[in-house]
Amino acid sequence: MSPSRLQEALAANPQVWGGWVVGPTILGPEEFAAAGYQYVGFDVQHGYLDDADVALLLRRLEHVPIATAVRLPSADPAPIGRVLDAGADAVIIAMVESAEQAGAAVAATRYAPAGVRSFGPLRASLGQDTAELEARVSVFAMIETARGLAAADEICAVPGLTGIYVGPADLAISMGYRLADAWTHPEVRAAMVAIQTTAQAAGLVTGIHAGAGKLGKTVADLGFQMITLASESQALRRGAAEHLNEAVGKTHDEHEQRGYQ
């Protein structure tokens, strides 16, 4: 059976660094792998992708040394099952605000009698053993709202959950702040730290959507383990701007770009 590259990376490193894919790119995930990123996330919530697009991209990455995660908008078991059948190492479920929602996400990754996942792996390398198929899957609940923050203790106590993944943008907005306050307002920063502390105390992996390299360093120092740095569109913009500035002989301070959170 194909091992979980994400579980292997998390076991071997204090932090794992990820890229993010929001469109049906063929080159993006491979370039993240070539650059040394340890995982790539595919965005079915905000990106221009559906689970069928993701299945094709996952098949292309079967022999590329990078772990994979898929963000989905809900705990609907059908799309969760399809991306897992295609070989995703992890699912990240958006906007989780209760233990019940987190439990539903876990159940969607487990076969009966423990869950509601339907059997049907699409890759021969995944094997046929249901216990092994379940064991290779990591399940992350996104805490990114004030209601999710208030329920963090209950969410983190859900059996079978692998980790918590923080979305700073929605968290700031739901707390009544501007998007620009996501990384600067003390109360938003304190909320992120509180979520990380609660999840870590529960023995869970802590992930976050940093959206930029400098912010990635900041959240690594806060103890987060799974850190998404940039989307393929951000990386393209930054690289394209640097090439243009080199060509025309200009220099400028690099502004960190915000990505999908």
Automatic annotation (TrEMBL):
Pfam families: HpcH_HpaI
Domain spans labelled HpcH/HpaI aldolase/citrate lyase: 30-235
InterPro entries: Aldolase/citrate-lyase_domain, HpcH-HpaI_aldolase
Alphabetized UniProt keyword annotations: Metal-binding
Keyword Phosphoprotein: no
Record field: transmembrane: none
Protein name: Aldolase
Native source organism of the sequence: [Mycobacterium] fortunisiensis
Lineage: Bacteria, Bacillati, Actinomycetota, Actinomycetes, Mycobacteriales
